[in-house]
Amino acid sequence: MAGLLLIGTDGSALATELSLSQGVETRTLTLPDIESVGVTHLEMRHPEGFAGRFTGVWLDDFLEAQGMNQARRVRFIAHDGYTTFLTPEQRRQKAYLLVTRLDGEPIAVEDFGPYMLVVPEDVEAVLEGTESMTRWIWAIAEVSVR
Fold this sequence. Notes:
By secondary structure, this protein is an alpha+beta fold. Helix content is 16%, strand content 40%. It is built from 4 helices and 12 strands, in the order E-E-E-E-H-E-E-H-E-E-H-E-E-E-H-E. The protein has helices spanning 31-35, 59-65, 88-93, 123-128, and strands at residues 5-7, 13-15, 17-22, 25-30, 40-45, 51-58, 74-78, 83-86, 97-102, 105-106, 116-118, 140-145. The strands form 3 sheets. A 5-stranded mixed β-sheet has the order 4-3-12-7-8. Strand 3 (17-22) and strand 4 form a beta hairpin.
């Protein structure tokens, strides 16, 4: 799991690293490493209630930059141990955004950070309760591929 935590100017804990594992190899990525593939900005409201400018990288672009776009399964593990998986078929059906910032700032752990996975095209349906958010995950500490 990601290990380095910094304290933000408001006293909140900011995780600065993301563990990325493939087989027995584990690498640690920083926020600039993740955002180096190019960021996207979206205005939206998250189903957990917070709203604003979400900044992040498209998951497929991120995986391709890491040489992991052919993975049969991508596993996301949150700081609290919650896990969700994505198959290539699920990634073809919808565009997933790996959120790195909210309103231009890194996201504190207690504010669902440091990283989140969202499906922007599903926001309204999730808010209305007509679409599940089982693939959405926040407080991501590790991404693992097989």
